[in-house]
Amino acid sequence: MKNLNIMFYFLFVCFFVISCNQNNEKKVKYDQTVGQTINTFYGDALEFKESYNLLRVLSKDIGQRLSGSEGAKKAVLWTKKIMEDYGFDSVYLQPVMVPHWERDKTRQEAYFLNSNGQKISLSILAAGGSVSTPKEGLVANVVEVKSLEEVDQLGEGGVKGNVVFYNKAFNPRFINQGNSYGSTGFQRRSGAIKAAEYGAVASVFRSLSSSDDDVPHTGSMSYKDAVDSIPHAGLGVVSAKKLSAELKIDKNLKLFLNFGGKWYPDALSHNVIGEIKGSEFPDEIITVGGHLDSWDVGEGAHDDGAGCVHSIGALRLFQKQNIKPKRTLRAVMFMNEENGLKGGQEYALQAVELKENHIAAIESDASAYVPRGFGFSGSDEQLEKLRGWLQYFDKNTISYFSKGGGGADIGPLHRSLGTPMFGLNIDGQKYFEMHHTEKDVFELINERELELGTASLASLIFLIDKYGL
Ligand SMILES: [Zn+2]
Questions:
Q1: Which of 32, 74, 174, 442 has its CA 20 to 30 A from that of 430?
Q2: Top-level class of domain 103-263
Q3: Centre of ligand 1 from the C-alpha of residue 284, in Å
Q4: Span from the CA of 208 to the centroid of ligand 1 (angstroms)
């Protein structure tokens, strides 16, 4: 009897172990049909190049589209029409008030006189949102620093009446250029506030660039009510080096600056939203998006025209295969990521007000180069599940799901509703050569690299829709 009990117990354990294994295998078992669908997403994207053709129009015919500009208005109407022409189930505009700043493109001058009395011109570009220098420009001595703390140490005695020159370079030893961007970004974002606290008349910064060229970069900056708003601009890397070298010879050199821009009242703009309705769970929403606004230099092809056409293109790939998703798929062109994030905030606000059920949000805002993986902000259990899906991806495209990541525009949704969020990670070695510069144009886009991004998004959406998170 006792032996029989032991035998039953043994059989039970065996059965339990086997069924657990089956469950595990079930979770990760390769499904031919799913594999086929995903292969077809990639094949269709690479053959038909619809995202690439859309990006050509967005970059070349519409071009720059800073919030509040004519270009931004055109881009809103154009993306709406594209999604209507594709026959998405519903396409609509979500109104949002956005900041409106315009660069004075007639004034972008900087130079100093070297010890031989020669005029050395510097390439300069106002940070987005900068006030202007006086019309005739300004002339002042320069103090060079590499951190905000150094400005504190110099204090009013060292800073007042001068131009503060932030000269912290990208660290070439980082494999991930995003880390360099992160550790130098304070110069552009907070440099003017810190310099103004001690009475500087203006501030300039070395462009947040991985390149050794002389193309200046722009980007967002901030002011603080309690201190003066002073003019703030980026210098090309070569120009920053020239200025730094001369300062070693002549601490008293005079820098001439003449640049700026103007603030206008907030403008009415829109997020553009296109949906394919879910057949089984229409109330469960999967959002995929990029930002429609761009800086006012270049064409915003990589940043973030690519993310927009990735998102529209991903839904388009569902249509190509005539796949009816179970959940509602939403492509969102967010407005105003670059200098305010109003579009992302409004999208989250509306989602809360309308009590929408967002099961996942994905953002593509890392350029059009080759996709490498997805960053994910959600639970560890979800992350494990996602890793089981890697078998469906060619390792030359998506080879990992990593912990952490998402996007600036979907961050508010993640924070207010707890929606799990993904960011499409892209090979970033070249991104900071042209980020926020006149070099970000359509000619830099490789059609196959761009299309791999579109297909990667479609594949992830398909898997989320099929298996849930
Ligand atoms: Zn961007």
A1: 74
A2: alpha beta
A3: 27
A4: 14
Which residue among 144, 197, 337, 449 is the active-site one?
A: 337
Question: Is 144 known to be catalytic?
Answer: no
Angle between helices 306-320 and 70-85 (to 10 degrees): 10
pLDDT confidence of residue 272: 99
What pLDDT sits at residue 116?
Answer: 85
Cα distances (Å, whole numbers) of residue 214 to 124, 125, 154, 218, 236: 9, 11, 29, 13, 4
Closest CA to 234 of 189, 199, 269, 182: 189
Output the CA 295–ligand 1 centroid distance in Å: 9
pLDDT averaged per 10 residues in sequence order, the chain, 469 residues: 48 45 56 98 98 98 98 98 98 98 97 91 98 97 98 98 98 94 97 98 98 97 96 98 97 96 98 98 98 98 98 98 98 98 98 98 98 98 98 97 98 98 97 97 98 98 98
Alpha-carbon gap, residue 440 to 371, rounded angstroms: 18
**Distance separating alpha carbons of residues 125 and 445, to the nearest angstrom:** 24
> Of 235, 219, 164, whose CA–CA distance to 197 is shortest?
164
- Decide if domain 30-89+277-467 falls under CATH 2.60.120.620: no
Tell me the HSE value of 403 on the side-chain side, using a 13 A CA sphere.
6
Cα-to-centroid distance, 352 and ligand 1 (Å): 25
CB atoms under 10 Å from CB of 229, counted, come to 17
Greatest extent of the chain over all pairs of C-alpha atoms, in Å: 107
Amino acid (one-letter) located at 84? E
Specify the pLDDT at position 28: 73
Residues sharing a CB contact under 8 Å with residue 193, sequence separation 6 or more, in sequence order: 222, 223, 224, 227
Residue 399, C-beta contacts closer than 8 angstroms, at least 6 positions apart: 372, 373, 390, 393
Instruction: Answer whether the bond into residue 394 is a cis peptide, omega within 30°.
Output: no
Give distance in angstroms: CA of 265 to centre of ligand 1. Answer: 23
Please, which residues have CB within 8 angstroms of residue 225's CB and are 6 or more apart in sequence? none
- The candidate with the shortest Cα–Cα distance to 164, out of 147, 185, 181, 182, is 147
CA distance 204 to 227: 17
- What's 170-234 look like in SS3? CCCCCCCHHHHHHHHCHHHHHHHHHHHHCCCCEEEEECCCCCCCCCCCCCECCCCCCCCCCCEEE
Query: Ligand 1 centre from 243 Cα, in Å?
Result: 30
Domains 30-89+277-467 and 103-263 share a fold: no
- What is the residue extent of each domain of the chain? 30-89+277-467, 103-263
> How many angstroms does the Cα of residue 290 sit away from the middle of ligand 1?
8
